[in-house]
Amino acid sequence: MIAVWQIQDAKNKLSEVITLALKQGPQLITKHGEKAVVVISYTEYEKLRKSHGKLSEFFSSSPLTGLELDLKRNKSLPRKNIEL
User: Fold this and answer.
1) pLDDT one-digit tens code per residue, 68-77
2) 14: domain CATH number?
3) What is the 3-state secondary structure (H, E, C) of 21-81?
4) pLDDT tens digits, residue range 38-59?
């Protein structure tokens, strides 16, 4: 469960926001009632940053690599008199 802070409270209690982010997880800060930012630990940030690989690596490691697919477009005309 993410704790929610109004920006003014987060400013006044920044040390507490950081401590909770380290111990309990992400802390959401709102501005004018709208979600604005999330404070997370540096460790969590690194995990998120490293979890994104290159798109080419994703496709090359796919179980579908090397599979022959028929990617030709069907050029037939649409059916007539279809009610939706």
Assistant:
1) 878 888 888 8
2) 3.40.1620.10
3) HHHCCCEEEEECCEEEEEECCHHHHHHHHHCCCCHHHHHHCCCCCCCCCCCCCCCCCCCCC
4) 999 999 999 888 877 788 887 7
